[in-house]
Amino acid sequence: MEQVEKIFETRELNVNMGPQHPATHGVLRLVLDMDGEIIAKVTPYIGYLHRGIEKLGESLSFFQALPLTDRMDYVSAMSNNIGYVVAVEKLFDIEAPERAKFIRTIVGEMSRISNHLLWLATHALDIGAMTVFLYCFREREWILELFEMICGARLTVTYPRIGGVRNDVPQEFLDSLYQFTDEFPSRILEYETLIDKNRIWLKRTIGIGVISAEEAVNWGLTGPTLRGSGVPYDVRKHAPYDAYDKVDFEVPIGTEGDTYDRYRCRMLEMRQSNKIIRQCIEKLPPGPVMADAPKFTLQPKDKMFPITHPTKAHAFYIKEKACKGCGMCLRACPAKAIFGEKKKPHTIKQELCLGCATCFATCKFKALTIVPGGKGLSDEKLAELAEAPLPEEFTKAQEHLVKHFEFVRRGPKVPEGEIYVATEVPKGELGFYFVSDGTGKPYRMRVRAPSFVHAGVLPRLSVGHLVADVIAVIGTIDIVLGECDR
Amino acid sequence: MAVVEVRISLPYKGKDPTEIAEKIKEKFPDEVVDVTNFRDQVSVIVKKGRIVDICRYLHDDPLLLFDHLQDLCGVDYHAKKDPRFEVVYNLYSIRHHHKIRIRAQVPENDPNIRTVTAIWVGANWHERECFDMFGIVFKGHPDLRRILLPEDWEGHPLRKDYPLKGPEPEKDWHGFIEVLNRSKELKEYEWEE
Question: In terms of DSSP bridges, do strands B4-6 and A442-448 run parallel, antiparallel, or are they unpaired?
Fold first, then answer.
């Protein structure tokens, strides 16, 4: 007998899961110590997608750092943008106009629905329900198309701005969205028919990854992951921002704190989001969409339109005599269309030029000039035309452009202080902590990412379960590694 | 497996944060250095010595009950303030709806502070990140390793004296240099399309 035991000795098995694994939702690496098929210990390794967004944010002005927030949680970029602008507005002590607040609430909730749809799709796919995936993507596509309608981008939207939103929403957007809210509840029912009472689904989710309310709070969980355990903590209710105090909605909470309850919470949350969007569209007040605070917000671009309008075929040209060769335009050109040596006149290669007017705003010696309607002409012809004085609308537009350029680069003058503002993104509580030292750049920008906290609880939730359940647990905490690693 | 929808009434305002700051001052008169107020957010700046006691008091006191650690992060005031680092605790009470911010000063030479993981388990990864980015050592931490950067990375990137562009090309992390060399090697081959 002893001999047999010696031959068949049992030992712990080490399994490496990820970072390239379809079920880890990105680049999460888990090292599983297993006793048979039971998980004894889980060690998550993160950081594969670390881009130093906090350090980058400290080197950019408040306006420039906004697009970075899209790249954190790329599944619900809109909510991340809103989190950022709400925090910065509080720091600047400005308030967005009512209409902008309602629009932000609408797009924030749309982002929540699209995030939960993607979550449901992948979570169900991980557990083995393929059909839900296709159904969810059908509705998600609708929302992404609506995003495209208002800002031209589907994922990295950068639509909200400090002090409001980029532009007003068109009527077709509201019509289409209203129709969406009409149809969406029946679509949710469709998903639920597929999995809600499905025996496999129930077996795979009930009693998996249970965490009690006290423990969940102690771990710092937020969002639906926390509410599944029965804690009614929702930043939208606890510290209302935007228009959340003007709409009527409820917060679903679970009782057991297992994977199934968290799934139910998110399903009900989608219905609430739907309700919020409907109310917002019905109540949407007229008015401007940008705050009237010229010291803190970007001005409308119409003033610069004579120069920057993309359909007008202007050419940019450097006057040889006036150019001192300082290299400002050369460094600023995003298309690298400007050539030349130091202290010698530069030239623009017309076929590379994008017509963005960045060089026009940087030139201090007025050597860079604009030739209206000069696109496609030869250099000799341009040199001839460039001598003509600029029309008045162009000189005025140039002034605005230069001011705008400096303003974006330097940032506004911000009072000294520090601020922590949290918003409810689909994944939980997204917090921004700013320390300002009185310049236009944050002295310290800290992002409290919900995914980061939720990834930390993975070992606690998966120990004692089977390997297959780890997949369910990764799905249920709803993490995106872009936000986790920043 | 019953999920219910609850109607949370718009929250009543919790305790005034200045009141909480006064309470901390009363309880720990020697520890509190300063109290600041900006945009209705109150921070209490404390010495690092009894940080665990202060946090324990805030967490356990039935009238305060700060059960939710919103955020824990470090700040580097390089050449701006004398104790160079600060560890910032943003606390919130889900029960009582009030918040407070604690800032513990940490000096430059031998930066260390006691861990609060015994009070909030969730502080674990935040402290690891703070160690990773600022080099602040959390004494008593159960598993203090780098978290976002590779384990053999040199330096602490969020310190103000760490260059924005990262280390010099030749001093770069060896893993990155290996990748670069490998790509150089592979460039010599011609790939059929």
Answer: unpaired
